[in-house]
């Protein structure tokens, strides 16, 4: 009986030692598998930066931690599953949230330049010019061009449109000398263009008409948009060189001529001031800012 008890105790001790040996063997093998997988993860270009923990128990691999991309997560699991002798893989890794890079701020929209509108000098505007040469019903020819300068500036809604001194061109519409016995003398003028800012613009004005008949009787009128009755101010006796500015009557423009006596003709000395009325509006480009 005593021998039987001793044999049973010895058997139990042997079994315990064998179990312990097997457990130690499993633990050693699991550690080796885990270390091998960890080394392979560190050597792979896609998974070397992954923060993955590898645990192995009785051949079953458990993966935990974070990886940067879904493809890196798949590669970690693939490496673990390809390890020889494992019983399975439990992939508990997660994908790390990506740092959101703020989108660059959109540049502010460009400031729209204020749209400039052309300047329109309306019909009816009076242009006072100073003649550059003498004109006469006797010596001037129909169709003859003459040059003048703008004597007074013109503004539109408070903005300068035409500056004094601008070059103006005109034409002799009619020039007819007065006969000694009968027949009237006539001198009709109009403006045709004006130069502004290096550009020349065509213009259309009323016709200033002056006639003389009998013994020095003179009449003056405007046509082509102006009312009759242009006034003569400061007559220039004998065709002298003094300057006189025409006076407008309503929409009319004054016409200046020399004093007329006997058989004298209509004379307009150089530097005389004449006023014309625009018959059509004049459109100018927007002024430079």
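^ structure tokens above, recovered residues below v
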């Amino acid at each position: 009986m005593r021998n039987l008890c001793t044999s049973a105790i010895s058997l139990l001790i042997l079994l315990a030692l064998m179990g312990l040996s097997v457990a130690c063997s499993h633990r050693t093998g699991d550690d080796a598998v885990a270390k091998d997988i960890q080394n392979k993860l560190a050597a792979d270009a896609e998974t070397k930066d992954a923060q993955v923990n590898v645990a192995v128990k009785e051949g079953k691999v458990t993966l935990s931690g974070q990886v940067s991309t879904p493809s890196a997560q798949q590669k970690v699991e693939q490496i673990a599953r390809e390890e020889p002798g494992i019983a399975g893989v439990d992939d508990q890794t997660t994908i790390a949230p990506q740092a959101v890079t703020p989108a660059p701020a959109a540049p502010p929209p460009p400031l729209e330049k204020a749209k400039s509108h052309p300047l329109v000098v309306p019909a009816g505007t009076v242009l006072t010019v100073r003649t550059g040469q003498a004109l006469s019903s006797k010596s001037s020819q129909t169709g003859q061009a003459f040059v003048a300068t703008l004597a007074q500036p013109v503004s539109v809604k408070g903005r300068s449109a035409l500056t004094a001194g601008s070059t103006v061109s005109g034409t002799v519409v009619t020039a007819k000398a007065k006969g000694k016995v009968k027949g009237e003398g006539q001198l009709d003028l109009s403006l045709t263009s004006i130069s502004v800012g290096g550009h020349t613009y065509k213009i259309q004005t009323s016709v200033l008409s002056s006639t003389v008949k009998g013994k020095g009787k003179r009449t003056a009128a405007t046509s082509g948009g102006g009312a009759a009755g242009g006034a003569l101010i400061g007559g220039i006796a004998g065709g002298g060189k003094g300057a006189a500015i025409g006076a407008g009557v309503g929409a009319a423009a004054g016409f200046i001529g020399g004093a007329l006596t006997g058989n004298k003709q209509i004379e307009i000395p150089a530097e005389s001031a004449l006023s014309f009325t625009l018959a059509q509006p004049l459109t100018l480009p927007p002024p430079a800012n």
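The chain has two domains: 9-95, 119-284.
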